[in-house]
Amino acid sequence: MSNLDRRPPARELGGTEGTPAGPVLDLLPGKEVLLGESTRVRRLLPTLGRRLVGAWAFVDHYGPDDVTSSPGMQVPPHPHTGLQTVSWLLEGEVHHRDSLGSDARIRPGELALMTAGHGIAHSEQSPAVHPRYLHGAQLWVALPEAARETAPAFAHHTALPGFTSDGLTATVLMGSLGGATSPGTAHTPLVGVDLDLAAGADVELPLEPEFEYALLAPSGAAEVEDAPLEVGAMLYLGTGRRRVRVRAAEPTRLLLLGGEPFEERIVMWWNFVGRSGEEITDYAQAWNAEDERFGAVVGYDGDRLAAPPLPPVPLKARGRVR
């Protein structure tokens, strides 16, 4: 999914100086953002107080939206560099097309993993005939220096591993948890897990003390250690934890995101991740010039998105928090 802001801020991310040396419980409320003409999302990363969780650099939560009488998601062709997109649906269906020729229908419980690398373009649409509700999360993973110029790729995994325990059904999107390992290719040590909690569930999740973690609540509500987590918010857990206790009084869905703190400095603007403002400028100009770097999305009926005007001020290093 694209960042459709017409005046997107430029951010310099990375470095470990903003990573706590131990556990914390910092609540990160979502910021409502209009995506396209009709879809509103809650942006949870980057946000006030936190820009990265491991290599997870961007998190949008959208829905549940009743799209019975609307076209639903309609995101025209747009570019990406230097990142992976991780698409996760709880309800609905999304038609993905990209400049590699990929053409896939993404449904709940399936992983759509697109590696932009050197450059890719894609579109995302609700099919003409689509389910009533649209609900999910769009996540970006920053690629490290060694992988950021890799060839673009797309993988669609329709079956994912997981485990059940004490009212919890866990599905592993990325990385490993509880003995289950995702087929998705990660380029840094990280984890992403869907947690489906039954009413009354009380579980302890195993964690890696070297990772930093956050929990997002797409639906329901939970108590994480002693902190409440309401729908649409994210709770940052810090580092140094070997386990975390999660309790749910009602049926609840959570997303656990974590990874080793991302040490490299990156610049993120619009749909690009690079290493300098000059690189970002080059990407934007290449996209608007229809450079072959990004290819073309075949099958989308409509115009592609143009890159918005670049910010008039130079980028400033701000670290992992602000």
UniProtKB/TrEMBL annotation:
- The positions annotated for binding Fe cation are 78, 80, 122, 124
Give the domain of life.
Bacteria
**Region Disordered: what ranges?**
1-24
Essential cofactor(s): Fe cation
The free-text cofactor remark is:
Binds 1 Fe cation per subunit.
Per UniProt, the keywords (alphabetical) are: Iron, Metal-binding
* Record domain Pirin C-terminal: where: 193-290
**What's the protein here called?**
Pirin
